[in-house]
Amino acid sequence: MIQLLDSAGLAAAADALSESVATAMKDVPRWALVGIRAGGVPLADRIADHVFARTGRRPLRGDVDITLYRDDLYTGLEKPVLGDTDLPFEVSGCGIVLVDDVLFTGRTVRAAMGEVWDFGRPSFIRLAVLVDRGHREVPIAPDFVGVTFATALHDKVVVDWEAQEVVVR
Question: Are 160 and 166 in contact (CB under 8 A)?
């Protein structure tokens, strides 16, 4: 196991990401942070808290579980576990900032966009990720990034919110 970020590094990357989102969205009248389960949910909460502390305005919050939208759902997943999707606001016309902890191939983000579109037509979708590790398989790029690491294709990058670190396993 290799540590990419310790607790201070993780906090700095998350804070920089949160500030980028807060700055970019300051004049957008209606927008929401939508965490991709599971790793994007605590990050979306953290960004929402930062935006509120900075602006006094808490963004709308939602979460999506992309299990049923995965392109590999029927090709070898052992007993997929379904989580909840919770979008407690009108998606149509709302700006959406999808949030995930690690961006790798882009397939998870593609699935999340498909799910969001099934709930309505947002005015835009942007992407915020804590770690961009490269190796895209679909043409998806983040709008907001905490930190970028060059990794090997076989690496598994894990954001451990309990231990407050980012590691490669």
Answer: yes
Are 105 and 129 a contacting pair, CB within 8 Å? no
Proportion of the chain in helix, strand, coil states, percent, rounded to 5: 30, 30, 40
pLDDT at 74: 56
DSSP strand pairing (2-5 vs 165-168): antiparallel
Q: What is the SS3 assignment for 92?
A: coil
Domains of the chain plus CATH, in order, are: 17-67+81-147 (3.40.50.2020)
- 163's CB contacts (< 8 A; 6+ apart) are none
Q: Strand 165-168 and strand 60-64: pairing?
A: unpaired
Secondary structure in 3-state letters for 39-80: CHHHHHHHHHHHHHHHHCCCCEEEEECCHHHCCCCCCCCCCC
The answer to whether the predicted template modeling score (pTM) of the entire model surpasses 0.85 is: yes
